[in-house]
Structures are given as structure tokens and as C-alpha cells.
Amino acid sequence: MSNDAVRADVAVAGDEPLKRDLKARHLTMISIGGVIGAGYFLGAGGAIQMAGPAVVIAYFVGGFVTILVMTLLSEMAVAMPVAGSFQVYASKTLGRGAGFVTGWTYWFAFLIGPASETIAAGTFLHLWFPVVPIWVFSLVVAALMTVVNIIGVLVFGEVEFWLSLIKVVALVAFIVWGCIAVFGLHIESANFSNLWGASSSPSGFAPMGVAGVVGAMLIVFFSYGGTEAIGTAAEESHNPARDIPRALTGTVVRIVVLYVISIGVLIMVVPWEKLGISSSPYVDAVTALGGPVFGNIMNFVVLTAALSCIDTGVYATSRMLYSLSRDHYFPAVFSRVNEKRKVPVVAAATCCAVLFLGALCAYFWNSAYLWLAGVSGFGFLFAWLMIVLSQPGMRKIVLRDNPSALKWKAPFTPWIQYLAVLLIVLVFVGQFFIDGGWKTMLAGGVWLVIAILYYVFVARRSLARAGAV
């Protein structure tokens, strides 16, 4: 079965193909943009408070799992580049019900992050323009991201490329500046010994022990969530066989190295006890290095990070809704593509509408964010698990139908699959031994029940009417 046949197999009547305008640099920055957002720049403080300097280990382990999952996803995306990505793969290997639950759970999980990022962006702007209410900035940012995603995929790719480039360059500059400060400038707070505990309060590398590292893992994995967005862009890649593995390599190197090294430098620049969640720890560190002016520059970087994450979130969720619609799980209107721009406008607009609703709920209901964040973290990990479980079946299907499509194979299979499943399951199980972790599991479990009930009583009937079952 050719790639064109695969796309035809999942399309509905009257549906238009998406435009192949994304290149390797776009794919790499889309994946980075979905990960390094305001949640990382702000959430790192919470992870540090849970694990102390040992948070470096948590980010390293999280990066390792990300590498495993991305490797398996890339093999499938090269062999079968479709907009629905792992939702389609789960449907073909684990059954339509599993595919629907995977796609819908990921869609909802990925919308939660951009919703909170919208409020974060409004908050950052409010610091500079206190006269304007936060909600006004939030609505303006959401509207801007709506326009960017509806105009066309090439515009989206270019915007995401430059927004992501800003934060990557900023992190690299911070790493260099921080290392110079620690090993050369002798700034009072910057000291290599901070990795083993602040001089004023010696606490060791892992003051909270293994439990602290495990407790930080949820925030860490939430920070890595979004890397899989590269899979949803496969159908719009200019050359999937060449660009997706290349984007995988670039993404892994950039994200893992940037995360692990920047977190280590961050702790060396400012003692971990002084890094909290009341403000971005990176803004605090840059202010300590260069003063308020440079702190404001870093605040601008955090703002662009929020915009970048919103941009990628709306893109990924609109393509997932588009895929679910053309697979008959939702009304066909969501799979209609604008003839001129080749963009699923209704799907994108719907995701942006949910983005507004999520932002308003998080703004007016204080406890909403905790529950939504729990579902989002659970959703990302659930999607990763389904990606890993789908890979063996997808390889068998491709080898049976069109062996030549298997142009790139994930190395060390099936061992990396076994390891990935083990680590993800351990993260889920570990939540029951962490304060408040059971709330995440409960929220995720409730959502899965809702998704399963919708499939059984609504989606399956739609499939039957369409003759898809």
C-alpha cells in the first residue's frame, strides 16, 4: 500500500488533502515549540523545589523516555505519514476504539497546556502594561494564534520556526553566560557547589531523596509533553522519509541537552532554595547575572515561549480533530479543508474556541487548573504509551502491505519498546505513592471512561452509518 493509498484510505468523500509545505527545519522547531513553553520556564521552579539539585536526574530520565518514544514514532511516521499520526496507528493496530480514545485524549490534553499558556502570556504582558487587564491580553493572544493557524501551514511553520529559535538561542546564551559566571566572573550567588547544596544551608545533591526525584517526574514529563507533535505534521512534510528522522535527531539533541544542561546551570547560578514558582526561575537567574534590564529581556523570551507553545498546541490539536473527523468519529465538517489554503479551518477554529473556554475556566475557577493539568499530564503519558504499543503492529502491517515504505527502522527493537513501556508504567504507578498523585490518576481515569462511553454509544454508530465498521 503506497502512502497516497494510505491517505485515501483514511479520507472521507469530498475531503481535500493537506498541503505539503513543512520542511525539516519546520518539523524540528514544531517539536521544540510544543515542548519548551512558559510551562517549562515557570514549572522548572516547582520541579526544583521537589527534588533539589537532583532535578537534573529527573530531566535526564524524562529525556531518555522521550528519545525512546520519538524513535518508535518516527519509524511509523516515515512509513505512513498521515495527519492523525499515532491516533491512526493505534486504530490500525489496537482497534478503532483504542485509536479514538488515544486521539481524543491527546486532543484534550494538548489543549489544556495552550489554555494555561494564554493566561501566562497575558500575565507577562500585564507586567509591562499594568493598566490593561490580563484577560484582554489573553483574548488578543488567542485571537492572534487563531489567525496564524488559519492562514496556512507554511505561515504556521515560519512563525513557529522563529518563535522557537528565539527561546533556543536564549537558553544557549543563558548556558554560556551562566558557565562564564560560575567559572570566571565570580558572581556572589553563582557557584559550582550549589549543585551539592547552598552554602548557607547545606542540603546535599538530593535533599528529598528518591521520593523527591519521583515527585518531580510528573512536572518533568509534562514539560517534555508535546514532542510527539512532530508526528501530526508528517502528512504536511515536504519529504517525510528524509525530514522526520532528521527532525527527530535535531529535536532529541536540542531538547534533552538544553533541558539537562540549562537546569544544571540554573542551579549553579542561583541556590535551589531560592528558586520557586512565584516567578520564572530563569528570569530570577538572568536578573542575578545582569540586572533588571536583562531580566526584562528574559521575560520577553518567556512570553515568546508561551506564544510558541500556543501556536503548536492549536496546530497539533486541529490536525488531530481533522483526522478523527475523516475517520468518522466526529461530524464531517471538521475534516473539510479550505480549497485555497489547504487548512482544516473548522477544526482549527474549534480548537481555538476551546482554547478560549479553557483560559476563561482557568481564570475564573482557581482549582480548575489543578484538575486540567492532571488530565493533561495523564493524557500525554497515555498517548506515549499507545505510541509504543502500536509500533510492533504497524511494522507488521507495513512489511505485509508495502515493505518498501519501511525506509527507516527504529534501532534496538523490540528492547527499546519493552523499556519504554516499563518506564511509563512505573511513572503511572509512582503517582499513587506521591502526595496528590492519586488526583492525577483519578482525573485521567474519569476522562478515559468518558471517552470510552462516547465511542461505544456515539462514535461507533457514526462508523456503522458510514460503513467503516
Molecular structure report:
The protein has 17 helices and no strands. The chain has 469 residues and is mainly alpha-helical.
Keyword list:
469 residues, mainly alpha, 0% strand, disordered N terminus
Share of β-strand residues: under 5%
What's the shape? globular
Q: How many β-strand runs?
A: 0
Multimeric organization: single chain
One letter per element, helices H and strands E, the order comes to: HHHHHHHHHHHHHHHHH
Distance between the termini: 20 Å
Low-confidence sequence ranges: 1-16, 18-22
Q: Tally the helices.
A: 17
Classify the secondary structure makeup into a structural class: mainly alpha
Largest sheet: none
Helical proportion, percent range = over 70%
Element layout with pairings:
Layout: H1 3-10, H2 24-33, H3 38-51, H4 55-79, H5 86-94, H6 96-128, H7 134-151, H8 153-185, H9 209-224, H10 229-232, H11 240-269, H12 281-290, H13 292-326, H14 345-364, H15 368-401, H16 415-430, H17 437-465
At a glance:
By secondary structure, the chain is mostly helical. The chain has helices spanning 3-10, 24-33, 38-51, 55-79, 86-94, 96-128, 134-151, 153-185, 209-224, 229-232, 240-269, 281-290, 292-326, 345-364, 368-401, 415-430, 437-465.
